[in-house]
Amino acid sequence: MFRITNRMMYNNTQFNIFTNNEGLLKAQEELSSGKKVNRPSDAPADITRILDYRTRVSASDQHLRNIDEGIASLNMADSTLNSMSELLRRVKEIAVSQAGAPATADTRKTYAKEVDSLISQVTLLGNASIGGKYIFAGQKTNTAPFTSGAIYFGDKKEAQVEIETGKSIGVTLDGSTLLSADMGPDINGNTLLSSLNKGSGVSLGSIKITDRGGNSSTISLSGLSTISDVINAISNTSGVNVTASINSAGNGIIIKDDNSIATQNLTIEEVGGGSTANNLGILASRPDNIEGLNLSPNLTTSTPLSLLNGGSGLNLTSISVVNGAASGTISLSSATTISDVISAINNSGLNVTASIDSSGRSLQILSNSSSTLAYAKEVGSGTSAADLGIIGGNNIIKTLTLLKDALNNNNTNAIFGTVGLVDTNIDKVVGIRGEVGGRVNRLEEMKGLLELTKEDATKQKSNLEDADIAKAASDLALLQTAYQATLQSTAKIIQPSLLDFIR
After folding, report:
1. Which CATH superfamily is domain 33-132+159-172+406-503 in?
2. How many Å apart are CA 302 and CA 310, to the nearest integer?
3. Is the pLDDT of residue 130 over 90?
4. pTM for the full predicted model
5. Which of 2, 57, 334, 425 would you call most buried, defined as having the most Cβ atoms within 10 angstroms of its Cβ?
6. Which helix (H) or strand (E) holds 284?
7. Quick check: 70 and 163 in contact, CB under 8 A?
8. Cα(first)–Cα(last) distance of the chain, in Å?
9. CA triplet 347, 352, 353: central angle to 5 degrees?
């Protein structure tokens, strides 16, 4: 006969109480958290799918935030462009009304003051921002893109936001394609150091390089004149194992550390309180290579056209130059450098002088006669004048400045000529508004798709991990009853006997 000992009864009772208590605690956790899966062990077969759905929901949330930010930025851009359109229509009214009789020299001078005010207004519109970010500054959203002199300080690349994995869309604009042209040259070995940093140049002195192997050397760059000189000086320095070259973007210097074993960061420092490394964009300490900053060189007459527009180059065709009553078409298709362009214009026989303007970022055409004003127009559907910064559709501020000067000088030929230029500017604004509207539509469509995707992922995740609250409450009540019953039955079954008091 099998004998049930007190120890067996105690062990069995303890196991039952523990089991009931564990179930009770799990039911309480499920009810309080609202989740039936609170840790991987709760549903090993489903946890991978749950984590995948959580990732999808999180990514959708981030992309939806990006889209909302993008829509706000682009809507601000559209509103600003609309204001520019209205301003340009007013400019056209002034140009048309003052191009002939009954306008006089006095009325034209009066309207010149209004146009000057409109130039200030359009500059302010170019510096429009939302949330502290400038929408016409390209990627340099923290930098006001325009100054009173209409020099563009922004970037030629648009700031992007990711709207789905691997896909982005521009939410800012390159203001140099609309208000004031910036030919944005890249650098090559022949680029003059004096042209860097938008003409501010480089304060030449010494720098100290410490490679990742711990080797150091001080390099004097005094007396150098080109990017090639700097690259050779750094690459040929004994004592450090580094190589300098132009970076893959074509706009700065990269310093590569050639040590196979690294014990510290690659570091470039100033020497004697100088600013040479900073001016060259290589003042840094990195665990790998030092990627230099954009050196933003100004134009020189030797600048190749292939370096312009951020290294994309310019495909020039022909422009029409007007100087008073004289005009002519100039072919620029064979030009390869800025010097070639300037020479072609200056040798056109139209009594004009082309040169790099005071901003150092585009060209200008001036009449050699004090009684006339010179300007350029596009030929056919070309964009050469705009690309070079000599008026055209990319240069609203220059167009308005030309009109102001024409009004002040009582130059009816130039006033009449600006009418067509303003029309080109208006068409450009309308075209950009259409592009902005297309981006907004795309963002709104993507927002709708993402909301559906998020809703589906949330539903699937909920099906796998969320608790049925009604069922959880019912289970909790049953488990509490069972737990109390277990305690009560145990108290009745296991009671002390006389033997418990025998010593």
Report:
1. f41 fragment of flagellin, N-terminal domain (1.20.1330.10)
2. 16
3. yes
4. 0.78
5. 425
6. strand 284-286
7. yes
8. 29
9. 80
